[in-house]
């Protein structure tokens, strides 16, 4: 990986270098963009030192890093620089995720608020609405140029001019002339190119409808989920007591945020897929992929005649971006190496070009064919991309003796059998391909790329032809020629229709999983609620039994104390008797025990409810579909949703804890002692012995207290039962309400997901039917315009396991159906066609 210079010279024009980095932001360096950048430098009178640094950035040699450039742009130029970057990013009216990421990174570094950028874009849109919509006016002022309107520096003025030239309203650019047009030529090529162009324009309309519909469905899904949360949230406004609804709202907000963030990601993928289809519309695209130093850059240079500066010792890693060359409606795309030391980023860069490629040429060498290297084929299969593998034998032909030996017997290097033969390598390639690519229907073509390279270096025409023939590169060129001339139309349909289904499969698979997960979660909660309702009734009954037993025990303690109290206070006056009884109650802790009885009953009830809720939370972890959704139950108690189920019992109980008052013996018992004392006094007379008086007084006091305590016990038990049941009902109601609100919210989200699923399934079927029509026409060696009417007339239904099998049921008779081998090799899916009435 080339090293970036961290400290840059103060003489450099950092505004211009920032523009250069922005050109590279999408990780594709297009030859047209590079030439336009050089023209811009000339118009803006950029100095030579800055130009040298520009070339280093474009070639990814040791260069001034983006971070160093950003930090070095003078403060008084930063506002204009933001406008310039936005103008480049939005030159075509669309800002790719990578371009947006770079702008956000720079804005954050400079402290530019996001609102400022949004205002610039709104202003440009407003200007757009005010300008004349005539073709002449649209050609003279692009969206990107409008962002810079009014800028007065030489660089911005030059940039406005250059953006106007490359704006999408003026796409009549000259086709770049390549010095070595060795790939395709002749009337067959011209006819095939014209047919491909016709097919591409027809197919793109279907791809655009399907992807736009998918994008709209994802946007509506996000909006629908938000509206669901808003509806539930409104129920809590102004109702501070509705704790359960608030808890539901918070939970569903987390759900909404999790789903929305995923939707945004899927939405960006769909939009980028549509952009890829737009980029591929006018060209038949061939992408070179493979590990670092496999020979991709050599292959690219030999075919295009450009990029020789990237070939040589120590220069194999200069291709850090996708390099794009175009001529005669052919696009050759050279990608970074797969499996390099910093290969993750490079692989992501390489992946970005797959959507718009018609054929993938995967280059390997015979010295190191590893599983990791070929595991990348899975990415190609997920996009249903046709594949050709070049195996490039390693041999240092720079040594004269080896070169002469090779030219004497070139077939020896390509031998399949023998100790040094390619047979074992080819078998290993096919084994890994069956594992990661699902089949091995593709061609494997041996080529000696170094020989082809040397053929371009020599001036000896005879030697040149001898080296090129010995390299066997013509075998690859012939395969590409056949791919375009014989199969170009179906290849274009594969790119614009067949593989586009993959861009819908991804969000569709995710939405399907989400819909199933939310439906199952809702059903689980419904079942658990029924169980909970039974459990809470049982818990209420158990806790009430405990409460009643404790109250009975407490009153029995008071009853047991009556006799001794009467004996001790039979002759006491009113005040002493009242104080004595209160003291006795304190001594046996009557009121404390009643309060403890209430607390113990509540605690028992709370614990049992809490345990049930914890079991529900634990059971929810068993739903496997949720492991890849917004909900994560892999660590118990770690996620708020799980934690809510475990803690909600405590919160709901706490919300109604004030309903149950403390149980205490009213002072009516003490007050009754006043009457007892009065009766005792009346019965006391001079005619009775003291012992008789004592017995009668004790009996009277005991009977009166026993009677009142017994009555009070019944009253207390009834009040305790009524109050406790009311408390339990409040707890049950709050929890049941929580279940209702949450289940309702989950059902609403599940419905939104199901609706989106149906729309995406329709888009997927829409594309599969169109693609099936193209396959049927290809098998019949016919071609007719692709319209919805022609599809309905021919295609009954399609069943497709994307990238693997496809069953087409058609009304058309197919007299000249392709052989199964040819269909497999070209389509690289197992396709069967059945004619039905």
A few lines on this structure:
With 837 residues, the protein is α/β, with parallel strands linked by helices. The longest helix has 90 residues, at 690-779.
How would the blueprint of this fold be written?
Elements lengths: L3 E2 L8 H10 L4 E3 H13 L4 H12 L3 E2 L1 H7 L2 H15 L7 H14 L3 H17 L4 H6 L2 H5 L6 H13 L20 H48 L8 H37 L4 E7 L5 H9 L17 E6 L2 E5 L8 H9 L7 E7 L5 H4 L2 H6 L4 E6 L7 H9 L1 H4 L9 H14 L6 E4 L2 H9 L3 H11 L1 H13 L2 H11 L1 H69 L5 H14 L2 H31 L19 H16 L12 H16 L6 H90 L8 H7 E7 L3 E6 L9 H8 L2 E6 L2
Helix pairs in contact: 1-3, 1-4, 1-5, 2-10, 5-6, 11-12, 11-23, 11-24, 11-29, 12-24, 12-27, 12-29, 13-20, 20-21, 23-29, 24-26, 24-29, 25-28, 26-27, 27-29, 28-29, 29-30
Question: Care to describe what's here?
Answer:
Helices cover 65% and strands 7% of the residues. It is an alpha/beta fold and 837 residues long. The strands form three sheets. The chain has a seven-stranded mixed beta sheet with strand order 2-5-6-4-7-8-9. Strands 10-11-12 form a three-stranded mixed beta sheet. Strands 1-3 form a two-stranded parallel sheet. A hairpin with a 3-residue loop joins strand 10 (795-801) and strand 11. Helix 5 (75-89) runs antiparallel to helix 6 (97-110), helix 11 packs parallel to helix 23 and helix 23 packs antiparallel against helix 29. It is elongated, with a radius of gyration of 42 Å. Residues 1-8, 125-141, 166-182, 238-242, 312-319 and 621-686 have low confidence and may be disordered.
């Amino acid at each position: 990986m080339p090293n970036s210079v961290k400290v840059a010279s103060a003489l450099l024009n950092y505004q211009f270098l920032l523009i250069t980095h922005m050109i590279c932001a999408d990780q594709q360096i297009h030859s047209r963009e590079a030439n336009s950048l050089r023209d811009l430098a000339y118009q803006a009178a950029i100095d030579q030192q800055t130009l040298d640094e520009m070339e280093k950035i474009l070639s990814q040699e040791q260069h001034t890093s983006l971070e160093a450039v950003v930090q070095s742009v003078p403060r008084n130029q930063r506002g204009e620089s933001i406008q310039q970057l936005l103008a480049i990013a939005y030159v075509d009216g669309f800002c790719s995720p990578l371009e947006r990421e770079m702008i956000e990174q720079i804005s954050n570094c400079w402290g530019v608020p996001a609102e400022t950028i949004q205002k610039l874009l709104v202003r440009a849109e407003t200007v757009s609405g005010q300008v004349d919509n005539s073709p002449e006016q649209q050609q003279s002022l692009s969206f990107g140029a409008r962002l810079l309107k009014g800028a007065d520096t030489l660089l911005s003025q030059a940039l406005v001019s250059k953006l106007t030239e490359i704006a999408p309203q003026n796409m009549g650019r000259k086709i770049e002339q390549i010095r070595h047009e060795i790939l395709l030529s002749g009337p067959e090529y011209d006819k095939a190119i014209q047919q491909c162009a016709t097919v591409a324009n027809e197919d793109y309309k279907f791809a655009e409808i399907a992807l736009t519909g998918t994008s709209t469905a994802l946007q509506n899904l996000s909006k629908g989920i938000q509206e669901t949360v808003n509806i539930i949230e409104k129920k809590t406004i102004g109702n501070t007591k509705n704790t359960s609804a608030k808890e539901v709202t918070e939970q569903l907000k987390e759900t909404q945020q999790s789903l929305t963030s995923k939707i945004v990601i899927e939405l960006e993928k769909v939009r980028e897929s549509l952009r890829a289809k737009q980029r591929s519309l006018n060209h038949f695209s061939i992408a070179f992929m493979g590990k670092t130093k496999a020979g991709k850059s050599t292959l690219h240079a030999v075919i295009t005649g450009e990029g020789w500066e990237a070939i040589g010792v120590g220069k194999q890693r200069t291709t850090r971006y996708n390099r794009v060359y175009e001529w005669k409606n052919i696009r050759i795309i050279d990608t970074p190496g797969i499996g390099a030391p910093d290969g993750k980023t490079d692989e992501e860069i390489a992946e970005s070009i797959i959507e718009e490629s018609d054929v993938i040429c995967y280059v390997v060498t015979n010295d190191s064919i590893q599983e990791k290297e070929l595991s990348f084929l899975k990415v190609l299969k997920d996009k249903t991309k046709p594949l050709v593998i070049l195996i490039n034998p390693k041999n240092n032909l720079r040594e004269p003796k080896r070169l002469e030996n090779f030219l004497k017997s070139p077939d020896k290097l390509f031998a399949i059998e023998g100790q040094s033969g390619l047979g074992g390598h080819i078998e290993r390639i096919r084994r890994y391909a069956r594992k990661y690519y699902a089949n091995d229907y593709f061609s494997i073509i041996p080529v000696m790329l170094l020989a082809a390279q040397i053929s371009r270096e020599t001036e000896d025409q005879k030697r040149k032809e001898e080296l090129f023939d010995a390299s066997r590169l013509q075998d690859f060129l012939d395969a590409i020629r056949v791919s375009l001339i014989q199969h170009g139309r179906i290849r274009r349909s594969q790119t614009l229709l067949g593989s586009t289904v993959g861009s819908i499969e991804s969000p569709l698979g995710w939405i399907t999983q989400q819909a199933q997960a939310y439906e199952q979660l809702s059903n689980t909660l419904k079942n658990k609620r029924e169980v909970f309702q039974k459990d809470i009734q049982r818990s209420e009954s158990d806790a009430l039994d405990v409460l009643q037993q404790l109250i009975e025990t407490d009153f029995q303690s008071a009853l047991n104390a009556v006799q001794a109290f009467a004996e001790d206070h039979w002759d006491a006056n009113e005040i002493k008797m009242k104080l004595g009884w209160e003291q006795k109650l304190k001594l046996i802790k009557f009121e404390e025990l009643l309060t403890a009885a209430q607390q113990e009953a509540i605690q028992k009830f709370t614990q049992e409810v809490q345990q049930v809720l914890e079991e529900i939370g634990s059971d929810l972890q068993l739903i496997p579909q949720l492991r890849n959704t917004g909900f994560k139950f892999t660590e118990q108690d770690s996620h708020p949703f799980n934690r809510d189920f475990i803690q909600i019992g405590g919160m709901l109980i706490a919300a109604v804890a004030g309903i149950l008052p403390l149980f205490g013996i009213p002072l009516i018992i003490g007050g009754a002692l006043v009457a007892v004392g009065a009766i005792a006094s009346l019965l006391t007379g001079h005619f009775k012995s003291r012992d008789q008086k004592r017995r009668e007084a004790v009996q009277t006091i005991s009977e009166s207290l026993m009677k009142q305590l017994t009555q009070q016990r019944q009253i207390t038990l009834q009040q305790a039962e009524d109050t406790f049941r009311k408390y339990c009902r409040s707890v049950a109601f709050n929890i049941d309400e929580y279940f209702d609100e949450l289940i309702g919210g989950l059902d609403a989200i599940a419905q939104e997901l199901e609706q989106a699923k149906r729309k995406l399934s329709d888009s997927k079927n829409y594309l599969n039917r169109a693609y099936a029509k193209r396959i049927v026409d290809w098998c019949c060696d016919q071609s007719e315009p692709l319209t919805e009417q022609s599809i309905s007339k021919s295609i009954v239904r399609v069943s497709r396991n994307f990238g693997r099998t496809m069953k087409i049921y058609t009304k058309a008779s197919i007299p000249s159906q392709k052989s199964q081998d040819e269909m497999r090799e070209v389509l690289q899916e197992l396709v069967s066609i059945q004619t039905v009435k």
